[in-house]
Design goal:
Length: about 210
C-alpha cells in the first residue's frame, strides 16, 4: 500500500531527446503506449522502473542500498580498517516480548479507550495483526539498542548496517546485518594463524578474539 501511494505521488519524466540518445528508441504517443500495455508489452514499464530507486522494496531501491553498503565497506577499508567482522540476524518474537505486550495494551487503551486482555492468545494475535506498525517500530528500536548497547560495548563494534525484511516463517519482521570492529578482528587473528602455518586443530586452540 505504501509503495502504491508513493508511485501515485511521483512524476516520472523522460525527454524525447534523452530517450533517443540513451535508449535508442523513437518517441511514442500515449495511444501507442496504451496499446503496448494492453498487448502485454512490459518493456516500457521495466524502463520506467529504472527511475524508481526511491520506492521502498523495488529492485532499484535495493540496488541503491547495495551501493550504499558497498561504499561504507570501501570507506572503512580506506580508513585503515577491515572488511565486516560479524554477520548476524535477528527475528521478532512478538508473542514473547513482554514490553511489547505492555506497549500494545497502553496503545489500545489510549486510541480505543478500552482494556484488552493480551494474556488471551487469540486477543494477542488479533492485536498484533491490527497494529503491525507498532510491532515493527518497537522491533526497530530494539534492534538499534542491540547494536549500540550490546554489539558496541561487548563485541567492540564501531559501525553496522542491517536490512529489515518480512516473512511469516521468521516472525512478523526480521533483519540481517553486518558489523565492523575497530580492532580488525577476527581477520587479524585468522591472518596470524595462517602466517604461522597452524593447522585447523591448532587454530581452534588459539585464544578467541572475543577474549
Amino acid at each position: 500500500m505504501i509503495i502504491r501511494k508513493q508511485t501515485l505521488e511521483k512524476f516520472i519524466y523522460c525527454s524525447t531527446n534523452a530517450r533517443r540518445t540513451t535508449l535508442g528508441e523513437p518517441h511514442i504517443s500515449i495511444s501507442e503506449l496504451k496499446e503496448k500495455i494492453e498487448k502485454g508489452d512490459e518493456s516500457i514499464c521495466k524502463k520506467i522502473l529504472n527511475f524508481s530507486d526511491t520506492l521502498s522494496g523495488s529492485s532499484q531501491y535495493w540496488s541503491r542500498r547495495y551501493k550504499e553498503v558497498r561504499s561504507l565497506e570501501e570507506y572503512l577499508i580506506n580508513e585503515g580498517k577491515c572488511l565486516s567482522s560479524i554477520f548476524c540476524t535477528g527475528s521478532c518474537v512478538e508473542f514473547h516480548f513482554k514490553p511489547l505486550r505492555r506497549l500494545l495494551e497502553l496503545y489500545v487503551k489510549l486510541t480505543g479507550d478500552k482494556h484488552i486482555d493480551l494474556d488471551n492468545h487469540n486477543n494477542l494475535y488479533a492485536c498484533l495483526q491490527e497494529n503491525s506498525h507498532i510491532v515493527a517500530s518497537f522491533f526497530d528500536k530494539r534492534t538499534t539498542s542491540y547494536f549500540e548497547n550490546g554489539m558496541g560495548p561487548v563485541f567492540g563494534v564501531s559501525a553496522y548496517w542491517y536490512r529489515q525484511a518480512f516473512a511469516k516463517s521468521r516472525g512478523m519482521i526480521h533483519w540481517h546485518g553486518r558489523s565492523w570492529r575497530e580492532d580488525k578482528e577476527p581477520h587479524k587473528l585468522l591472518h596470524d594463524c595462517v602466517v604461522q602455518g597452524l593447522s585447523e586443530t591448532e587454530c581452534a586452540q588459539v585464544p578467541s578474539y572475543l577474549g
